[in-house]
Structure formats: C-alpha cells, structure tokens
Amino acid sequence: MSAETSVPRPREPGLDISDSDLFRGLMSEAPFAFAFFDPDGRFVRVNSTFTELTGHPVELHLDRQPAELLPADLTTLIETALRRIADEALPVTDQRIRTRAENGDTRHWTVSFFPMHGDDGVVGTALFGVDVTERQLNEEVLERSEERYRSLVESQQQLVWITSPSGAVAEDAPQWRAITGQGLEEYLAHGWLDAVHPDDRPGTEEAWREALRGRTMFEWSYRVRTRASGYRHFEVRAVPIIRHGRVVEWVGANTDVTPQREAEEMRGRLTDQLGAAALRTARLQGATAQLAEALTVEQVVQVIIDVGRTALAADHSSVALLDLDRATLKLISSGGTPDTRGEEIDLANPNVMTMAVNSRRPVFAESPDSLRAQLVDAGADEAQISGFLAQTDERAWVGLPLLAAGRALGALRFSFTRTQKISQEDGVFLEALAGQCALAVERATLFEREHKTAETLQRSLLPDRLPVVRGLMLAHRFRSGSRHVQVGGDWYDAFVLQDGRVAAVVGDVMGKGVKAAAGMGRIRNAMRALALTNPPPAAVLTGLDRVFEATEEEEQVTTLAYMVVEPGTGEGTLALAGHPPPLLVSPQGVGLLHETEPGTPLGWATSRKQFRFCVPPGHTAVLYSDGLVENRKRGLDAGLRELSSVVAEAPPEVLSSPNMLLDFLVDHMLSGYEQDDDVTVLAVHVPPATKSD
C-alpha cells in the first residue's frame, strides 16, 4: 500500500513513509483527527484525536465498519463521502459535524476526505478532521451580536444605509425603501436624496457633499416622502469608515422623529394659544382700566379707537349710538367709515353696525365674499354692495352691538385692509370688549346728563352780573375744573345792603354734581336773606349755622368768606367759616393775606367772630376758593405764599384794573399745574380818591 495522496509530494532523502514508528508518532501527535479506510469502508488506522470525535478507543475501530460503532449521523456522513470517492475519485471537503463529549460539552468539527491512490487505482480513503469549536462559538457570538444590533436598530425605528466612498448607494436598504416606496432600481440609481422633500433637498445635498469632502460626520434633519405621499421628519447621522487612511464606505442611520416634531409643534401651538390668551386678557384689562377712567362719551370713543388700533390692529374704527326715536345710529366717530351716508345711519340700511344692533349679535365678515353674503341675506342691494367693495380698501369687518342689560346703546365697527381670520377666542375677546365699552358708554351718558344738569343749576344760582356801585368796582372769574369733570359747589355773590354798603361772599360746598350744586343754592339763598335782615358778618354766619344744621347732612362740608364794605372809604368787616383769608393788593404790588382766625365750616358749634377789614382807596381785596391755591401737587400753605409773591410780578396797569388783576392771578397761579377743581375769584376794588371827590 502506498501512502501517496491525490496530490503527490516529493520524497525527502532519508525519510521512508513506511517506517511504522515514524508514522505512528506523526499520527499520535498530530493536532487533527485522522482515519484511514480501506476500499470496503473499514477502519484501517485512526489516531487518538479521532477518538475524541467518536468517543471510542483506537483498537475498537480497527477492521470495523463505521455503522458498527458510530452514531447514525456520523456514520451517514462517512459512508456518503466514501461512496462519492469510490465513484468520482475526488476529495470531499469541509463537512460539518457536531459531537458531544463525555463531560457533556458540544464540539464542532470540519472533516475532509481524500482518495489514496496506488498502482491499481484508489487503495483507500484518508479522513482529516479539525476541531472548529472555538471558531464556531465565535461565529455564534458574532451572529448574536448582529441580531441584537439589528433588533436594536429596528426597535429604535432607525433606517440604516451604506454608500460608497463617493456617496453613491452601495447596497440595498429594504427598510428605507419600505418607508419611501422606492423600487430597488430607483433607489440604486438615484439614492436616498431622491426621497427628500424638495424644499429640504438643496441644503441637505450641500451638507452631504461638504461631509464627503471633509470626511467628517454628517448630521442633518429633513423631511422624507413616504409611500403614502405624505412626509415624515427624519434625523440622519452618517460616519465614514476609514481604513489605512482611506474612506472605504459611509454608514448612515436615519431616525424617524416625526412624533417628537409633532409634539414640539403641538407644544408650540399650545404656547402660542396660551400667549395669545394672556395677551388678549392683558389687552382687555388695559382697555377696561382706560374705559374706567373715561368720564365722557368722547373720552370713551377715543379709548375704543385706541384699543382698536393697538389691541386689534384695526385700520378703521367707528362708534355709533342708537337714537330709538328716529330709528337711526348716530356716528360719534366715523373713523373713515365708507359704507355710511352722513352722520346718521338708518337701521333699515344694512351694514355691519346696523346688522349688529338689529340682531343683538356680533357680525364677523372675514373677507369681501363673506360680507357680500351677509349683506345680501340682510336685504342689501347687490349694486350698492359692489360699489362699496370697489371703492374701499377694507377686506375684513367686525360689527359689535353695545348692549347694557339687553338694551342696545349703539354699535362698534372695526375694519381691516386685509382678510382677517376671526377665531373663537378672538370672538370671545371682542364680545367682552364690547360689553366693557357698553358699560362705559352708559356710564358716560349718565355722567354727561348729570353734569349738564348740575352745570345748568350751578350757573343759574350764580349772579348774571355784579351790582354797579359808585366808589366801588367789582369783578369775578369762575373757571370750571374741567369740562369732563362733575361741576362743584363753588359760588360767589355780591349785592347792595339796605344801608348802601356792599356784601361780597365766596363759598365752597364740598363735593361734586347735582347734590353739591343744590346745597350751594340753599346756602346762597339763606345767606342773602340773613344779610338783608341782619347784615353784620358774625350774625349772618351764626344764622347760617342754624340753617345748615336744619337742612344739610352732617358729612357735608361748606366754607365761605363773607365781607361787608362801604363804597368810597373801603371800611368794612369780615368773617370766615373755615375759608382761606382774603388777599389785599396795594397799588404798589404788595399782596398781604389778612391775618385772622379762619373759623370753622358751617354747621360746626362755635362762636362766630367778625373782624375789621379795610380796603383803602387804590387797593383791591380778593376773595377766592381753594382751587386757586391748592391742587394735587401744591399744598395750601405753599399756594398761599405763592399767591402773595405773584402779586409782585403784576405790572401797574394790571394792579389798577380788578378784571385784569383777576386774569393775571388766575393765569399765573394755574400755570404749570393741572387744574383739578373749580376756581372762583371775586375782587372788590376801591378806586383812589379824585379831586372832585
């Protein structure tokens, strides 16, 4: 028997393969399993390593068939290989088999069969087996790692793709194509960029090219077209795989971040809605505060216009009040309203304001088409509607009824030069604004009515003219605190007594409105009656105290300065009831405040006193209310000092004319201050004696 294999090797000098000792030594020490079979398939030789594969000792194998002592799977593998070699005389290689050792461990082998050729052909078959258990275990570990990686990627909804070093698609990405709907040929031809949203593609492509040039990590986000023709948001990260300083491929992973983006957008919308709600609330609070300070309808209208411009960004604002008797809306502020004729709007003439008043509901027209449809439903003429829309730049309209306790007071109109989406929240804000405006209009209307009544009453109780008396000149000035504030209780009077002397008085009934004016009228009439009966100032004030206790409320405070002066000489007497002292102005411009006890207001239990008060010829006595010297920024004491000093600034011609003097004092004392009270001033001037006198 020859030991030659199917691939003969040259014999080495001095080495005889037939040397049995040498052959046994090689086989016993070889790290691989070896077995030799004769042509009948019987074991001829095996080494000890082969016994690890079979689990039987060497001697048990010799001259036996594999089926006699080996397991069925190993027997089948050996017999199949022996038959193929007998038929084809070709090697059978890399056959895998798994065995179990005595300790229970599983071993993995790779076995190969080679025909042994002799002079007469194949004389036997040699089996060589290699223990590949460690390699098999490594492969299993690697496979498990790949499975874990694949599961992790799939669980994170990541789409993995690979490109060549130049960025071209290198292999299929089934997950990517399952999302995008791209066919394999399409994907391989055009790549992943073809599925990116057209708006995102230029920036994405430029960033990808930049990463390719710089061999740096590519991180980007874009929208990807899906199979359903929608778009989803993806974030991508791709890294270059570098070997020996060269990029061999790029590996990228796309993560679907659509849920996060949608959540962010939802949070953004909620934040915007909350911010808008807070802004609307702040604007409504601001408008309410401004409306609360508005006293007259004119002031309310101005606030409404300002709110329309600032809070609503309206281009035009209009306010109209309802005249039920005439069934019209009277425009208080037209605001450039082009769909009205004149200052009055007939309620039968359809527009956003009349529709709001007639229906008692807001009217929202977000576009010209919306306005046209609503006006047609209200009975407006098509030609008039077309003419109006053709001549105006307005493109959206809001009409709001002004309702107080369900009663219509008028309407507001806001318009915009662009179409305007009116959300439900905007509608709630506008209705709340209209409610506040209605309350302000109602309050201002009542105030103006009361103001007008009180002012008429006050004017009627003041003398139309002062008496003309030889040897005495009288002058007065009355300046209301503001035409927007309620009238007060300031009053003045001057009249001739039965003995020829002149009584002069300035009083102040604290408070505002009709109540103060009525109180002033009662005190003035009582004072006249008492003075004509018993003219001394102390007696008059004592009588007024009794009248006050009988007719006025305890909390009412009334002060006055009352003097009686003799024409020509200026001799007189004075009594004060809690009132500022009179000012005596000399021809030289020296102003002196009369030093006397101020007394107490009327109705207070006290012993009234009167004092001598002389107005020498050429001098002027000035009686005044506290509005001349006192205001929010200037106290009474400071005002009295300033009054005395102002006189020194008057030129000579002013000092000799009581009318000019009063104008000078009022103008200078109010200069630089906001007038917040009525100012009443009465001058008693005694002309200098002449030679004829």
UniProtKB/TrEMBL annotation:
Mind giving the lineage of the organism this protein is from? Bacteria, Bacillati, Actinomycetota, Actinomycetes, Streptosporangiales
Q: What is this protein called?
A: PAS domain-containing protein
Keywords recorded for this protein, A-Z: Hydrolase
Q: Which NCBIfam families match?
A: sensory_box
Q: Which SMART domains match?
A: GAF, PAC, PAS, PP2C_SIG
- Entries under PANTHER family matching the protein: STAGE II SPORULATION PROTEIN E, STAGE II SPORULATION PROTEIN E-RELATED
Native species of this protein? Microbispora siamensis
Alphabetized CDD domains for the sequence: PAS
Work out whether the entry's keyword set contains Iron.
no
Tell me the Gene3D superfamilies matching this sequence. Answer: 3.30.450.40, PAS domain (3.30.450.20), PPM-type phosphatase domain (3.60.40.10)
SUPFAM superfamilies reported in the protein's UniProt record? GAF domain-like (SSF55781), PP2C-like (SSF81606), PYP-like sensor domain (PAS domain) (SSF55785)
Keyword hit for Transmembrane: no
Q: Where is the PAS domain?
A: 19-89, 145-215
